[in-house]
């Protein structure tokens, strides 16, 4: 099969990205791989949908560095979207929100058109359209979420902080990578106005109760087809530990990765999220968990597969590609009768 990975940009890809691991796993299993970016779709007057795909031209790199070098030298091939069996949406919309607002919805919009033409698109583009910001998080059961308020009013936020003396985490509603995430201890904090101004520049703010267990970091758990991803009793999970004096555990914000113990309590949290993830066609999701609460559900670009492989010696990318192979088999078996959202989590 041919898999197209939809990313923000070719030059922005990195050796430590999970997308790179997935592409290598696909190549090792004998599949063709190409990359597509927000500006690479063409809808012609005859209603045919084409992609200008960066294609490896038969090369089969086995290392991340070689793959990225090959991508930079690869040619761009224009092909009908029907020549692709799977379109894997792996972009981060928040990266494009400021400088390329036109690119934010390209994946979901053209993903819908691709699915209508028989391409398996994961995660399901209609589901992803519901998750363009952290409001999506509010759709999960209250029992697994920290107490949360969303507002642009500093008076409302001050009141929320006053009601939660253990502290509050303040962050943008639209954002990722730990950017503009702050811990506020008191409504009288001297620089609260400056923090509010910095964090609210992108729009609404989320205020959440601070979870004391977060001092030790959070656990990123991969969920595939609605269930925790595991092989031979080892779960695809790792602990993200924040740098000293930092509340953010994001690896892009100086956090570090350590092996994680996945407890029955953590699995119970994932179990409570399963119905919505399946309903929304979320094939691959990264859950960030602290104690008995989920901090975030990353449905666009969950990362960490290289860190998990380093810790456990298991390349879970192979399991993910194998699951896509099964979806292609089922699609062929049912001759296109299954809806994309159904196929996404089968």
From TrEMBL:
This is Glutathione synthetase. Keywords: ATP-binding, Glutathione biosynthesis, Ligase, Magnesium, Manganese, Metal-binding, Nucleotide-binding, Plasmid. Its cofactor is Mg(2+); Mn(2+). The keyword Protein transport does not apply. One of its GO terms (cellular component) is cytoplasm. It is an enzyme of class 6 (ligase). It comes from Sinorhizobium fredii (strain NBRC 101917 / NGR234). One of its GO terms (molecular function) is metal ion binding. HAMAP family: GSH_S.
């Amino acid at each position: 099969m041919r898999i197209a990975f939809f990313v923000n940009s070719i030059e922005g890809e990195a050796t430590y990205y999970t997308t790179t691991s997935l592409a290598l796993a696909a190549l090792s299993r004998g599949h063709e791989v190409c990359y597509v970016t927000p500006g690479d779709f063409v809808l012609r007057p005859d209603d045919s949908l084409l992609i200008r795909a960066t294609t490896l031209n038969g090369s089969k790199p086995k290392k991340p560095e070689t793959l990225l070098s090959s991508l930079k030298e690869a040619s761009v091939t224009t092909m009908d979207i029907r020549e692709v069996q799977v379109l894997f949406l792996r972009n981060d919309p928040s990266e494009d929100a400021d400088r390329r607002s036109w690119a934010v919805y390209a994946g979901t919009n053209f993903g819908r058109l691709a699915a209508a033409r028989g391409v398996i698109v994961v995660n399901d583009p209609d589901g992803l359209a519901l998750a363009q910001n952290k409001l999506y998080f509010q759709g999960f059961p209250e029992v697994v979420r920290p107490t949360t308020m969303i507002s642009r009013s500093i008076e409302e936020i001050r009141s929320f902080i006053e009601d939660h003396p253990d502290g509050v985490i303040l962050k943008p509603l639209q954002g990722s990578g730990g950017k503009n995430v702050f811990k506020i201890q008191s409504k009288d904090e001297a620089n609260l106005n400056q923090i509010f101004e910095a964090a609210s520049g992108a729009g609404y703010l989320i205020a959440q109760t601070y979870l004391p267990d977060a001092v030790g970091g959070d656990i990123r758990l991969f969920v595939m087809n609605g269930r925790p991803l595991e092989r031979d009793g080892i779960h695809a999970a790792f602990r993200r530990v924040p740098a000293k004096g930092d509340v953010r555990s994001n690896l892009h914000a100086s956090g570090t990765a350590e092996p994680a113990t996945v407890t029955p309590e953590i699995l119970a949290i994932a179990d409570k999220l399963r119905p919505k993830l399946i309903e929304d066609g979320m094939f691959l999701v990264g859950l960030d968990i602290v104690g008995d609460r989920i901090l975030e559900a990353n449905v666009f670009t969950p990362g960490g597969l290289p860190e998990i492989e380093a810790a456990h010696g298991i390349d879970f990318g192979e399991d993910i590609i194998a699951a896509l192979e099964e979806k292609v088999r089922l699609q062929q078996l049912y001759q296109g009768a299954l809806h994309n959202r159904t196929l996404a989590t089968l």
